[in-house]
Amino acid sequence: MLRYFAGVFLIEIEVEGDGFIEDFMFPDWATLRFNHVPLVGGATRDGQALGTATFSVSGPRTQEAYLRTGTIRQWGVLLHPLGWALLVGAPAHKYANRLADGMTDPAFAKFRPLAEILFGPEPDRQGELDRLTDFFDGLEQLRDPSARSIAEVYEALYDPEIETVPELVERSGVSRRTLERLCQRAFGFSPKTLLRRERFLRSLTHFTVDPTLRWMGAMDAAYHDQAQFVRDFREFMGMTPSEYGQLSKPVVEPVIRERTRYARQVALELKEGASWHGIKPDL
């Protein structure tokens, strides 16, 4: 499943009575969410409601999403661009910064059976994970002649040394025009926007993992100055760094910390001599 997913997660939240928690989700790749108790509310920046669907989909995002929820159990799969291309196949830019009801949108019809079988009468983490894994292992993937190029671009985006579109073109081995089309179709945004988003997310991750850094210490080295960082923060999160720093983050902080732990684990395996292809299988 590594060729499809940037992550698989289980969110379990319990609040008393009619209570709720709030958070702002950061920009991310497309996500399929399967809700056992669909009490999720909230909205995108343009006012599109998150809704309470049993199976909901968020397309790739360059904007925050407001989250408000009571008690919930939710399994989610984070589709990286190759996973989107091989499993969904619809143009990613058509779902960029959008939400969809997976139970009604035809692009996600193949995933509906999982929503119907994933949860039993009682919580069962291992059983649910096994059903999710078996389901995706059994899916027939689509054919995409650009699969290898998509994987190369995706990997290059995570290299902090790649700061410009020409550098991304050189690393990915495709022409500028091909890269532009490929990014819109599989990633949802232009190469320039994707590079800026990753630069911003590196900074957000540094701050979340170690708040003692403060924003100046967490700011990615690719930023020219603080003003540029603040502009990006407003664009991607709809608020200033100071405003965000004052918010409680009951969902976002655990998510970012766990992703960072996993990334460090992979990096350690590579350092100890593991093959990258053993971690990320060949196409």
Automatic annotation (TrEMBL):
It comes from the Bacteria. Residues 148-247 form the HTH araC/xylS-type domain. One of its GO terms (molecular function) is sequence-specific DNA binding. Signal peptide: none annotated. Keywords: DNA-binding, Transcription, Transcription regulation. It holds the Pfam family HTH_18. SMART domains: HTH_ARAC (SM00342). PANTHER family: HTH-TYPE TRANSCRIPTIONAL ACTIVATOR RHAS-RELATED. This is AraC family transcriptional regulator. The lineage of its organism: Bacteria, Pseudomonadati, Pseudomonadota, Alphaproteobacteria, Sphingomonadales.
